[in-house]
Amino acid sequence: MTGSSMAENPAPLHDLHMNEKKVEGAGGRHPLSVIILTYNEEANLPDCIESLKGLDCELFVVDSGSTDATRSIALSGGAKIFEHPFDNYSVQRNWALRCLPIQSAWVLNLDADERLTPELVTEINETISRARADTDGYLLRKRTTFMGRWIKHGGHYPSYHLRLFRHGRGRCEDRLYDQHFLVDGEIETLKHDYLDVLTPDISIWTLRHTRWAEAEAKQMIAGGTAERRVRPDFLGNPIERRRWLRDGPYRSAPPFLRAFLYWFYRYFLRLGFLDGREGLIFHFLQGCWFRFLVDAKIYEFERRREIHKDETLR
Q: How far is it between the farthest Cα atoms of the chain?
């Protein structure tokens, strides 16, 4: 279902009251709602839903037109399924937060290739039951797995992301790539990991990052409104500190050269070489190739703009 009525008054694609296999604790009112974004995620979604076992939650899946078994898997896992056309992650996440019929006090945002550890499930249940009134969100610690290997080095672990927050207090920042959630109140940090299981298929991985490189290049050229973004702050939380490094020292470095400098920093100074062959592939592709491709896209867009300007003046 698409169209303006869907955007303002979403309705589930399936009636989930009959023959429904629910996530443990699902049905009725819960302290937590989990939102998972999907598109052709039949390979990832079962493990993602299974990892929610024991979490006192209601499950929402926002699908953007899957043609595989994603929806049937979500249905069998107890999810309420909604469809919304995909523009970018920021738009999709904010639509979900604004339009889904969420009745819980807390919201947890996940991707289909992410999983909660049992320890984190227990910690979330306990944390939101005794949260301080002035705490609006929690940083979760991400553990990245690439080609079956935990990427522990290169500055990639621990990596923190704001995924759990009070309903109505959080939003996704207005960025085309690498978006983070924002809250207005206090933020605390949970102790246990969630898993980000990256695809082991290098062709799929590079195709995705080619799209993301174009989005990042457009973002770097366009800039944006600071009020709707993570605040760069060297002395701030881990997300603000990483944004300071990106928007400050990295952005000020010479294009193209900065990709190699960043890879050198990650692979040698931050000990990325300790992650083995899988780490070599990951750190080079994600830390050098991808960042070089972003600069190449910036160069392409700016060159195209200059050519168009010259042709206009003729």
A: 68
Instruction: Give the β-pairing of 186-197 and 135-146.
Output: parallel
At 116, phi and psi to the nearest 5?
-90, 140
pTM of the model: 0.89
Helix, strand or coil, per DSSP, at residue 144: strand
Angle between helix 290-313 and helix 202-222 axes, rounded to 10 deg: 50
Render pLDDT for 160-197 as a digit per residue (tens, 0 to 9).
Answer: 999 999 999 999 999 999 999 999 899 999 999 999 99
Q: Report the alpha-carbon distance of residue 192 to residue 122 in Å, rounded.
A: 10
Task: Give Cβ neighbours of residue 60 (< 8 Å, ≥ 6 apart).
Answer: 33, 34, 35, 36, 79, 80, 81, 82, 96, 100, 102
* Site of tokens 């062709």: 203
What is the rounded end-to-end Cα distance, in angstroms, of the chain?
48
